[in-house]
Amino acid sequence: MNHEMKCRNIRAAMSLHGIAGLLLCLALLAAPAYGQSLAGRWAATGSPLANGEVQKVILDLKQDGDKLSGTMQSLGFINEVTGKVAGAHFELWGVGWNDPKPFVIGDLVNGELHASQWGDRIVAHKATAADEIPRPAYIEPPALHKVKFNGLATTPPMGWNSWNLFAEKVDDKTVRTMADAMVSSGMRDAGYIYVNIDDTWEGLRDAQGNLETNHKFPDMKALADYVHSKGLKLGIYSSPGPRTCASYPASYGHEAQDAKMWASWGIDYLKYDWCSAGAIYKNDALQPVYQKMGDALAATGRPIIYSLCEYGMGSVEKWGADVSGNLWRTTGDIRDTWDSMMSNIEKQVSTASYAGPGHWNDPDMLEIGNGHMTDDEYRTHMSLWALTAAPLLAGNDIRSMSPVTKSILMNSEVIAIDQDRLGKQASPVKNGDLETWIKPLADGGAAVGVVNLGPAAAQATVHTSDLHLAHPIAKARDLWSHQEVQLIKDSYTATIPSHGTLLLRVWAQ
Ligand code: GLA
Q1: Would the CB of 14 count as within 6 Å of ligand 1?
Q2: What angle do helix axes 286-300 and 255-265 make, rounded to 10 degrees?
Q3: Is the pLDDT reported for residue 99 higher than 70?
Q4: Using CB atoms within 10 A as the burial measure, which of 194, 311, 347, 381 is most buried?
Q5: 3-class DSSP state for residue 276?
Q6: Per-residue pLDDT, 192
Q7: CA trace torsion 306, 310, 314, 317 (10° rounding)
């Protein structure tokens, strides 16, 4: 398990996504106040989820001097935590985090832990026998077998996903207004077809085991009809574990039932997020567990794109297609920063040979337009996702895009590189601060992107011989300035701003 995965689980168990967050806060209680020890079992209750459930968080802590260790569990999750104590004050973070930034910070006050967990206030008390978290029984995953390609995603899926901007605040109205904006902004006509609802739509299971929606989504079938009436498609989200990453009920033991229900609603795309499955299965079960839902989707007879989300564990690029995956996340969650975006794309490098029509590596959704990168950085984000044939799932507010954001997301010449039917994923060659990515195209030409990783503008020269084209060059265009460029003496030189990208398309004769 990598650091981001652990980080994710901790986060998922916390109030960022609902009740679970509060539970984590309990962990903070562990600080020894004036000689008191934080050791022991603590229990807290998180804020309610949108489906009305109130989650418990149990923190089991050991204290050795000023050091804390132990576990934190909530519905579906068990995470190792570590921390430190100074007097009555304590801090906790996830084991193995690269950046040991505490997520629970608090004090031991009168035998209770009063803490802030990701900014939420929580109070934990010493647990009693009643403070137990039920664990579902183990279900053996089915044996692996050969599957038939579902024929979908012959080019990388394009659309919008609610998570990056709205997280748990997504609701029916947001999705409807976003679908309207996909049409009025031109996004749909630029190719962004899927409108994907991420985590936190889930309600409770009824007596027959059907998973209901929560109050934010009063009628999912009606919502699907609305989205379809706009010429768009609707996506949904679940987990193979008992709980999603935001701690909502998920598909463990209900795979076929859930798939049937989604098909009856008119769902066209499923993102299936490992999350709490990690508390039930080891990584050697990744393939059969994912194949189980792939089979369930196929059995519905409805074309549903299958998006695996397990952060690249177990070299998913090598087997994702064998379990019916049309795309698979290769990284942890993207954030709206240059470092996060570049770190995600660089993790794509070893996966390049596994991308192709019907099955794509997914370095996570786009952050373009969310405001924390420069326009040059967002152009680089779009260029690199296109060069690596990555799914293009916008993660911003389509209803209020600036002209620059529109010009980046809807640059049809860049989209054409991403959607090229040959489906090749570019790999980089680094030379100092300049990184060159070359993507062969179906028409015998190529796209070439040169990224300036450095802090200052830099001059870059593209040599046409590096493109290894079978025929001489007919013409070349700069896809951001939308101008033809002259290849003088077989090369082209341009100045690239810091964190910007020169993106050329070259046609062969
Ligand atoms: C995980 C995924 C994210 C998002 C959240 C929802 O962190 O990687 O993309 O789906 O869960 O809880």
Answers
A1: no
A2: 40
A3: no
A4: 381
A5: helix
A6: 99
A7: 40
- Strand 194-196 and strand 112-117: pairing? unpaired
Report the nearest-CA residue for atom 1 of ligand 1: 245
Q: Are 264 and 229 in contact (CB under 8 A)?
A: no
Report CA(248)–ligand 1 centroid distance (Å). Answer: 12
Q: Crossing angle, helix 338-346 and helix 375-387, to 10 degrees? A: 10
Residues 6+ apart with CB under 8 A from 509: 471, 472, 473, 474
**Active site residues per annotation:** 273, 333
Q: Distance between CA atoms of 28 and 89, rounded to whole angstroms?
A: 9
* Cβ(333) – ligand 1 distance below 6 Å: yes
CA distances from 419 to 122, 473, 502 (A): 47, 22, 19
What is the number of helices (H) and of strands (E) in the chain? 12, 26
**Residue 25: band (very low, low, confident or very high) from pLDDT cuts 50, 70, 90:** very low
- Please indicate whether residue 11, judged by its CB atom, sits closer than 6 Å to ligand 1: no
pLDDT tens for each residue of 425-464: 999 999 999 999 999 999 999 999 999 999 999 999 999 8
Across 55-78, average pLDDT: 88
3-state secondary structure string across 12-74: HCCHHHCHHHHHHHHHHCCCCCCCCCCCEEEEEECCCCCCCCCCEEEEEEEEECCEEEEEEEE
For residues 24 and 292, which has the higher predicted lDDT (pLDDT)?
292
Instruction: Give the neighbor-by-neighbor strand order of the sheet with 434-440.
Output: 427-431, 434-440, 446-452, 501-508, 473-478, 483-485
Is residue 27 within 8 Å of residue 57, measured between CB atoms? yes
The answer to whether the CB of 310 is under 6 A from ligand 1 is no
Give 103's pLDDT tier (boundaries 50, 70, 90).
Answer: confident
What is the three-class DSSP state of 198? coil
Tokens 């050091």 label which residue?
67
The b/e string for 238-253 (b: 16+ C-beta within 10 A; e otherwise) is: bbbbbbbbbbbbbbbe
Instruction: Locate the ligand 1 atom nearest the alpha carbon of residue 163 and give its number.
Output: 4
Cα gap 13→56, rounded to integer Å: 10
The residue contributing the CA closest to ligand 1 atom 3 is 333
* Distance from the alpha carbon of residue 238 to the mean position of ligand 1, in angstroms: 10
Name residue 475's amino acid: K
The helix (H) or strand (E) run that includes residue 8 is helix 3-12
Pocket perturbation via mutation, ligand 1, pick of 17, 199, 243 by most ligand atoms within 8 A of CB:
199
502 CB near ligand 1 (under 6 Å): no
Where is 253: in which H helix or E strand?
none
SS3 category, 321 = helix
Q: Note the pLDDT tens digit of each residue in 302-351.
A: 999 999 999 999 999 999 999 999 999 999 999 999 999 999 999 999 99
